[in-house]
Amino acid sequence: MTEMRADLLSPPGSAAYRAATNPHNATVVQRPAMAAHPRSADEVAHAVQWAAQRNLGVAVQASGHGAGAPIEADRLLVDTSGLNAVRIDAQARVAHVGAGATWSAVSAVAERDGLLGLAGTSPTVAVAGYTFGGGVGFLTRPYGMASSALLAVDYVDGNGQIRRAAEDAADAVDREALWAFRGGGGVGLATALTVELVAPPGLWAGYQLWSIDALGPVADAWVSAMGQIGDALSTSISVLHTPPGAPMFPPALQGVPIVHLAFASPQGPDAAGPLLRALRAAPAPVVDSSWAPADAARLAQIHLDPPNPVPALGLGRWLGPSAPAVAAGVLGTAAAADSPVAVVELRNVGNHAHTRDGATTAVPGPFLLHAVGVATELASRSRTEDGLARARAAARPADLGRAAASFADGRGAIADGLDHSDLQRLAGISTALDPDQRLAPSRVLAGLNDV
Questions:
Q1: Which 3 state secondary structure label does DSSP give 281?
Q2: Do residues 293 and 266 touch, judged by C-beta distance below 8 A?
Q3: How many domains, in total, are found in the chain?
């Protein structure tokens, strides 16, 4: 039987096990039989083989932002956070990164050469899970989804064999695997990725905060600017419930619902002109984190994502061009002080960027709804589900009938993350690479059973 070094395995009760089973999204229970901590592709392959010989399934996790389905004692958890190497080829404008590397680690190295990856809004998100889920951030409008920038994936299949997914792979199933990794949640257990980088000529970013009383005029200003801004500017408008005593907010904005508007552009200050002019009709913000030159660290701050683990339950929906018409109503579903939903957010994400072939490499709609609440126990989960349902109902006139699966926080399966034919294609690739279905499926693939 395949054996693993003792230092690569941690049993329940150990410090390494507790760290591996403490995901950023703390909604779900994680109690695997063991946790493995590989540092190389060979060690990942050995872990899969070790699990197979003991009739265990395999789940994978790095940062745990995408945690959804419970991990029970019939699985080995492979903690890929140790696969965190980052190498930049500045001339080719590509990054070769371990599957456990975070975007903040990649940005810190790439930025030395004037380059950036298509990161998300949180600096602690791992590159792999974010990219495999599609990848939407503040650079999506000018450059497209992160999944479309994915060039290759080194991975281990369900039989414990090391493979490489690439467009020029000799085996057709590896070429198909790249399609799946590009926004379909992936197949197999990734060990490393090769991603394309961009060279923004002038990165600017900022955010503003208002009391909830200003929601109407701020939303009106955002809506009026939508027809005037170009693809260079990305925005996010939300109602955000701040924690009591949170030092990042002034006292007047602590422990209450507030209005939050974040915006960024890689093409200098003029891109925000139409939005800033429209905002003159709204009350002055309580906090104006000024529209100014930014680096990657600054860009990762403007969304105000929580730095610590949160038991989050959410939904993501792709919306059509009529989303601005329902914006005030959607945001208003979280405006009450006792709302169970902590954030209701609308992003404008439509673009004309070049896309590569993949499960989800082009945004399915020009707007994105993301709503999330805290679900610490059954009662709060029920209240949060009700609040999320109200947000979705308010957005229904603009809903395109497709989930933004990577924004479905705390969910193990999403039935409408892809259309049926693409789901069937994804399932076929998964079966070819994992005939015994040993590897835990992605949120999108797991949803096939609900179609």
A1: helix
A2: no
A3: 3
What amino acid occupies position 43? E
User: What CATH number is attached to the domain comprising 429?
Assistant: 3.30.465.10
Cα–Cα distance measured from residue 370 to residue 239, given in angstroms and rounded to the nearest whole number: 11
Report the alpha-carbon distance of residue 406 to residue 363 in Å, rounded: 13
Domain that holds residue 70: 6-81
Q: In 3D, which of 373, 387, 391 has the Cα closest to residue 327?
A: 391
In angstroms, the CA 398 to CA 319 distance is: 5
| CATH code (residue 17) | 3.30.43.10
Q: Supply the pTM of this predicted model.
A: 0.95
Q: What DSSP state is assigned to residue 73?
A: T
Q: Give Cβ neighbours of residue 299 (< 8 Å, ≥ 6 apart).
A: 119, 138, 203, 205, 264
**Packing angle of the helix pair 323-332, 215-226 (nearest 10 deg):** 160
Give the pair of three-digit tokens for residue 399.
């809903």
Residues 239 and 319 in one domain: yes
CA distance readout (Å), 315 to 53, 332, 381, 408: 37, 16, 13, 4
Give yes or no: residues 190 and 246 share one domain: no
352 and 372 inside one domain: yes
427 and 324 share a domain? no
Q: Are residues 190 and 235 in the same domain?
A: no
1 inside domain: no
Q: Residue 41 falls within a domain, yes or no?
A: yes
* Together in a domain, 379 and 240: yes
pLDDT tens for the chain, 451 residues long, are 567 787 899 999 999 999 999 887 777 889 999 999 999 999 999 999 999 999 999 999 987 777 777 899 999 999 999 999 999 999 999 999 999 999 999 999 999 999 999 999 988 889 999 999 999 999 999 999 999 999 999 999 999 999 999 999 999 999 999 999 999 998 999 999 999 999 999 999 999 999 999 999 999 999 999 999 999 999 999 999 999 999 999 999 999 999 999 999 999 999 999 999 999 999 999 999 989 999 999 999 999 998 777 788 999 999 999 999 999 999 999 999 999 999 999 999 999 888 999 999 999 999 999 999 988 776 678 899 999 999 999 999 999 999 999 998 888 888 899 999 999 999 999 999 999 999 998 888 887 765 4
Q: Which of residues 55, 81, 107 is at a domain's end? A: 81
Both 193 and 157 in a single domain?
yes
Q: What is the spatial order of strands in the sheet that 9-10 belongs to?
A: 9-10, 34-36, 75-79, 57-61
Co-location of 192 and 244 in the same domain: no
- Cα–Cα distance measured from residue 404 to residue 301, given in angstroms and rounded to the nearest whole number: 22
